[in-house]
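Hi there. Long-time user, first ticket. I'm pasting a complex I've been working with (about 275 residues overall). I'd like to know whether the download I got is complete or cut off, because the file seemed smaller than I expected. Thanks.
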Amino acid sequence: MHKQLELIILLNDLELTLRELAEDESKAEEKMGFKLSKKQEIESTRKEIVQQLDDGILAGFRRVWNRYGKAVASVRNGICYGCFERLPVNLVARKGKNEEVSSCPHCGKFLYWLDDPL
Amino acid sequence: MDPSKREVRISQYFSPHSIQLSLRARTKKQVLSELVSFLPVDTGTKSVVLEVLRGREELGSTGIGKGVAIPHCRSAVLPELMLAFGRSKRGIEFGSMDNNPAHLFFLVASPPIEVFNLYHPVLGKIVEIVRDKKTREALMEVKDPAGFLNLMEEVLA
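Hi, the file is complete. Here it is re-exported in full:
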């Protein structure tokens, strides 16, 4: 997998985790008995990832995240699962798709190709 | 149907390959890595899931005490909800609330969005199952993955 794509996915997943912790649904985790006490540590992990991301990619990430509340979409059978639009053939027909950073031309989310894993 | 009212059948998310009754791991880091290795996904996906799990553990341990840990995370690289189970009779230091080593490990990994939104219901169900002392004792004694799956079916019946 392309290193920048891996970082984008990690950042997306960490942002989602942090957001879930702030939401009511996640309070359920604390009720279940999980410890949730060290938010600052995950903040530092996030900072490390951000520092390694290319400026242009980070700007794209922020733009899409702010608009949709998530910045990564998985792809199955040529469909972007972020907006459920069919992706163009020139994106779908490539080999080693997760070896490049690509984004959906419809919604702009970064794409992770589930049917072309490494 | 309201997802919270949907019947949660945990056993269907396990496969015999995702159940390991004698973990080789001796540390928290190793056990996370070993549990992730059971997931039916490629190496690149496993590596991302492992990083996200470690990130979640940095927030606070998922060792809930009484010898049980339930590491869990969501990641965009996962195609569907996946579970794995591991047991260490020796016990592994996991930073649990009661400061005792963990023996029973349930891994819950899910994509950020699922059709039936089962992530929290499944987590809740596992917590409910392992709260029962007899179930924990039975989990320590099961002999093979089939026995584990049968036990899961029994306690959920």
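A couple of notes from our side: The mean pLDDT of chain B is 88. The interface with chain A takes residues 41-45, 47-48, 51-52, 55-56, 58-62, 64-65, 70, 73-77, 79, 97, 111-113, 120, 123-124, 127 of chain B (CB under 8 Å).
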